[in-house]
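USER: My hope is that you can spare some time for a protein that puzzles me. I am handing you a single protein, as its sequence and its fold in token form. Walk me, if you will, through where the backbone shape changes along the chain. The protein I mean follows directly.
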Amino acid sequence: MRGTRTMTAAGAAAAAVLAAGCGGSGGSGGPAAAGSPAAATAAASDNGVAALPAAEILQRAVQALRDARSVRETGTVGGNGMTITVDLRLDGAGSCAGTLRQAGVGGFQVVKAGQELWVKPDHAFWENNGDPALAELVGDRYLKTTSDNPQFAEVVDLCDLGALANRLGSGGSDLAKGAATTVQGHRTIPVTGHSDTGSGTLYVAADGPAVPLRMERDTGGRVDLGDFGTPVPSATPGPDQSVDLDQLQPGASPSAPASV
């Protein structure tokens, strides 16, 4: 259906930018909030990344992200002529909750738990992309499907912390370390790399755990990472809050979804 294709396109653009173009070769939780007593202690705790080469800094950041087990991404990304606002909590088990919103088009809420996936378009999204009859049928409810539905492959990928770590840790070249700078109140070391889709910079905390705190891309977009180790909300939409997308049309199935 047209609407799910737009969701997929938004997911693909977000996934591309979240790779940040800075892949390389080869304790839960992130730095404490700035201004807190814990932050003052962390600031005095140099984690040693500033003395490392760019490739090793990237490896440390990827491992710290995996060790955190969960993260929140917030920011704006751009790609393929789209500007997408992201606010997404995700973990290593593939669970996630949050929103993706495309400028001038509308957005949708995402909830994923295990193999189950719920997507809830807002009014603006339906107006710009949806079938009016389908929008009326769904109303103020979620579309429910599974992670096996290929129409939502990019959205599912965005829900996986391991997939994010893999994107950051591979595919880049010519890594370069920049001068220390402050991000989210913490001293960070920027690492810039290049890929087929452009260049990107990852800002890695130089105090406390060496987690990545910001991703930027030369073609536009910046995403901050935080709330490391905070569990993804476990609540999922109930049967009265969702419509089974795979049963909206006869013969539709997760492996061979019908096109509306």
